[in-house]
TrEMBL record:
The keyword DNA repair does not apply. Belongs to the short-chain dehydrogenases/reductases (SDR) family. It comes from Schumannella luteola. This is Meso-butanediol dehydrogenase/(S,S)-butanediol dehydrogenase/diacetyl reductase. One of its GO terms (molecular function) is (S,S)-butanediol dehydrogenase activity. One of its GO terms (biological process) is fatty acid biosynthetic process.
């Protein structure tokens, strides 16, 4: 009895002959995206720092920080809602570094509102950025990887709310559930090309978004500033609110050859709030 040979699948991590691997990070002008870009720069990748035109100063600051630390980086503007803009970003990254190896679809927005107060235009906007933007990013990255024929790594921004929604973050939670599902579907379809697709799910992070959540919850519950955040933080087993660098460490792994046999997963990095 003869066995059918397994199909040949390109290796995920290609040998660049000494040239640095190239990673795009969207939403990298500040916060978690900036920390991810800085970490990948420290890992030796050429990092393409991308964000909206209005964030040009932040783009330049992130690029300068990576370069000052001895890394390689370039900056480009992008609107992830416009797929042609993402396509142009990928082309720019290839022009900068020779090819593309990693795409971190980090760009996203949040709005803190009770569901009954949410306006239709805001609901549409958050889905445009957080779901359509990730869809556009995943597709354009995959198309480039397939053209190159050497596999690649796609990493998306999910959240703890992709597993357990939070009050006042209803539509945001829905978008992150969608990212988790899209990540799984993309992993299934593109594995034959040697492309891995994973996502990261931050918990409570010391960023502007969580400052706004604290402010809204405090107003709703009659608490002082900081008390609502502290109340939520009590559920963290490791005893502290996370910082962007905690998330960047996980993305470093998902972007590296160490994760070559990992795909379709959404990893929580929340200090032990939610078990999946």
């Amino acid at each position: 009895m003869t066995s059918t040979p397994a199909p040949s699948i390109p290796a995920v991590s290609s040998d660049r002959g000494g040239a640095p691997r190239v990673a795009i990070v969207t939403g990298a002008a500040r916060g978690i995206g900036k920390a991810i870009a800085e970490r990948l720069g420290a890992d030796g990748l050429h990092v393409v720092v991308a964000d909206l035109p209005g964030a040009r100063a932040g783009i330049d600051e992130t690029v300068a920080g990576i370069q000052a630390a001895g890394g390689r980086a370039s900056g480009h503007e992008v609107d992830v809602v416009d797929e042609s803009s993402v396509e142009a970003l990928v082309a720019a990254a290839v022009a900068d570094g020779g090819q593309l190896d990693v795409f971190v679809a980090n760009a996203g927005i949040a709005q803190v509102e009770p569901l009954l107060d949410y306006e239709e235009k805001d609901f549409q906007k958050i889905f445009d950025v957080n779901v359509t933007g990730v869809f556009n990013s995943y597709r354009q990255a995959a198309k480039q990887f397939i053209r190159q024929g050497e596999g690649g790594k796609i990493v998306g921004a999910a959240s703890i709310v992709a597993f357990r929604p939070f009050a006042l973050l209803g539509p945001y939670s829905a978008t992150k559930w969608a990212v988790r599902g899209l990540t799984q579907a993309a992993a299934m379809e593109w594995a034959e090309h040697g492309i891995t697709v994973n996502a990261y799910g931050p918990g409570i992070v010391g960023t502007a978004m969580w400052d706004l959540i604290d402010e809204k919850l405090a107003a709703q519950q009659g608490l002082a500033k900081g008390e609502a955040l502290a109340e939520n933080a009590r559920s963290i087993l490791l005893g502290r609110v996370s910082v962007p660098e905690d998330v960047a460490k996980l993305v470093s792994f998902l972007s590296s050859p160490d994760s070559d046999y990992v795909t379709g997963q959404t990893y929580l990095v929340d200090g032990g709030i939610q078990f999946s």
